[in-house]
Automatic annotation (TrEMBL):
A biological process term (GO) from this entry: signal transduction
Annotated Pfam families: SACK1
Record-stated family: Belongs to the FAM83 family.
Residue ranges of every copy of the Scaffolding anchor of CK1 domain listed in the record: 5-137
Descriptive protein name: Scaffolding anchor of CK1 domain-containing protein
């Protein structure tokens, strides 16, 4: 396979790459091999909650933050995203459309250095006229 990245297949994609107008690092982060960290909720005994781990990563981010989630309502995490964006770190967020339908407000994610996309699943119509909307996967 030529011109293939481990996370995106531009030669084989049927959709264009999203607009990353805030920038994206040219060089990926250095990856340490040989270790995996698994975090659970509720946390294992003596381990910090997943929320705390996520916040630590957001607070240390220096190049880019990219989040894909079904729902983003935690005020502290949203605050950390704003703080990172204010430091000049590009922040990209992809949300599930259902989170918008459940009174989620995009106003909480407004910042000049932040981009938010809302995606939904495919919509299918049956022969009987029933509509089924899928989820973002």
């Amino acid at each position: 396979m030529e011109n293939v990245c481990s996370t995106y297949f531009p030669c084989r994609s049927d959709t264009p790459a999203p607009n990353l107008d805030l920038g994206w690092p040219e060089k990926g982060p250095s990856v340490q091999t040989g270790g995996v960290a698994v975090h659970t909720s509720p946390p294992a005994e003596g381990e910090p909650p997943v929320r705390q781990i996520v916040r630590q990563h957001l607070q240390k981010a220096g190049q880019v933050i990219a989040i894909v989630t079904d729902r983003l309502t935690d005020s502290a995490i949203i605050g950390d995203l704003h703080t990172a964006a204010s430091r000049g770190v590009p922040v990209y967020v992809i949300l599930n459309q259902r989170s918008i339908q459940e009174n989620f407000t995009l106003n909480r994610l407004r910042h000049p250095n932040m981009r938010v996309r809302v995606l939904g699943g495919k919509t299918f119509g049956s022969r009987t006229g029933q509509t089924v909307v899928g989820e973002m996967k």
